[in-house]
């Protein structure tokens, strides 16, 4: 079963898509099978991976969400080995409204991911810069969410709203949702403010902050216009090196968590076997913990 990670922040331009594409490509470097689901009508993850948004008008995540197509049938191979994408196009804007009358409207993405989860090790969801139904579907489908924060003065603005939304989703829709980590992006070594933002965020979020920090790197901003990840475009760049370190760190965290859950499963099973049949189900937690 794939680990499903949602890359979310309702603030625009913080590096969600750049991180989705390059973490996915870095995980492929680690020989993982990876899928990116582009949930942003801007379709930047699709075009950034060289898959034309308008060439896939009838085979995008929009058709999957409204039930016209199976997720498996819209997957496209990208130019990166082992990396697939479910594309987005501007039709997806309509899905926010159309889905309102659908059954299980918050679970449309989760239900479709369940049909292909065994084909991948990781599924990354690139979210739009909003907290609407597309992001709600993404958080409802995910095991965890990763928050890119730009190393700028207003970095923390809106973060409490995102954590609050995730907490509500955990409580009402997806009890297993946890925070995967906070990723600091566009770090500028020459800028004092960048250093201040990093230390403030580390004070607030401690070990939730990934050790790998993504610097501002012009090669990272050039790669999408060539339809390539940073590994195909310039594998020697600092951007490529940092995204590879990040993917290793992420994979280690995930493997540790899987091991921990496997070792606690037998204990839990014994505990459950000892409980009387009419014992109440545990209440879902409102807070989002790692
Ligand atoms: N580390 C970086 N160094 C330099 N430029 C970067 C870096 N990360 C992202 N960028 C550039 O910053 C801009 C915003 O990045 P990106 O599109 O990844 O953000 P986003 O959060 O997905 O935006 P949106 O909210 O619009 O979806 C893009 O032009 C991108 O190329
Ligand atoms: Mg984006």
Summary, kept brief:
The protein has 290 residues and is α/β, with parallel strands linked by helices. 43% of the residues lie in helices and 12% in strands. The protein has one domain (3-272): Rossmann fold (3-Layer(aba) Sandwich), CATH 3.40.50.
What is the radius of gyration? 19 Å
CATH superfamily: P-loop containing nucleotide triphosphate hydrolases
Rounded to the nearest angstrom, the distance between the terminal CA atoms is 19 Å
The H/E string reads: EHEHHHEEHHEHEHEHHHH
CATH top-level class: Alpha Beta
| Low-confidence runs | 276-286
Question: How many DSSP H or I helices?
Answer: 12
In the CATH hierarchy, what is the architecture at level 2?
3-Layer(aba) Sandwich
Number of self-contained structural domains: 1
Major beta sheet summary:
7 strands, mixed
- CATH topology (level 3) name: Rossmann fold
- As laid out across the biggest beta sheet, the strand order is 3-4-2-5-1-6-7
Bound chemical compounds: adenosine-5'-triphosphate, magnesium ion
List the helices and strands and how they pair.
Elements: E1 3-7, H1 16-29, E2 34-38, H2 44-48, H3 61-65, H4 71-74, E3 76-77, E4 83-86, H5 92-98, H6 108-113, E5 122-126, H7 133-141, E6 144-150, H8 159-172, E7 178-185, H9 192-205, H10 218-222, H11 230-233, H12 238-274
Helix pairs in contact: 1-12
Bound molecules: adenosine-5'-triphosphate and magnesium ion.
Magnesium ion (MG) binds at residues 16-17, 40, 44.
């Amino acid at each position: 079963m794939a680990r499903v990670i949602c890359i979310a922040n309702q603030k625009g331009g913080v590096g969600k898509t750049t991180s989705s594409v390059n973490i996915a490509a870095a995980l492929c470097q680690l020989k993982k099978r990876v899928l990116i689901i582009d949930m942003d009508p801007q379709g930047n993850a699709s075009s950034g991976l060289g898959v034309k948004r308008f060439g896939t008008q009838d085979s995008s995540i929009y058709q999957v969400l409204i039930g016209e197509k199976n997720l498996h049938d819209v997957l496209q191979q990208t130019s990166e080995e082992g990396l697939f994408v479910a594309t987005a196009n501007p039709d997806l804007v309509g899905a926010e409204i159309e889905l309102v009358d659908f059954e299980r409207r918050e679970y449309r993405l989760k239900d479709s991911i369940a049909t292909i989860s065994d084909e991948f090790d990781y599924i990354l969801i690139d979210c739009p810069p909003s907290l609407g139904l597309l992001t709600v579907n993404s958080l409802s489908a995910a095991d965890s969410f990763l928050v890119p924060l730009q190393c700028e003065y207003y970095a923390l603005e809106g973060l409490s709203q995102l954590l609050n939304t995730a907490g509500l989703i955990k409580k009402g829709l997806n009890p297993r949702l946890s925070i995967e980590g906070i990723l600091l992006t566009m770090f500028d070594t020459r800028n004092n403010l960048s250093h201040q933002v990093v230390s403030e965020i580390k004070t607030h979020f401690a070990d939730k902050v990934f050790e790998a920090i993504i610097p501002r790197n012009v090669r990272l901003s050039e790669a999408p216009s060539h339809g390539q990840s940073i590994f195909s475009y310039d594998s020697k760049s600092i951007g490529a090196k940092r995204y590879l370190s990040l993917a290793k760190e992420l994979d280690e965290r995930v493997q540790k968590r899987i091991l921990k859950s496997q070792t606690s499963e037998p204990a839990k099973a014994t505990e459950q076997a000892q409980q009387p049949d009419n014992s109440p189900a545990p209440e879902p937690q409102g807070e989002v913990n790692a």
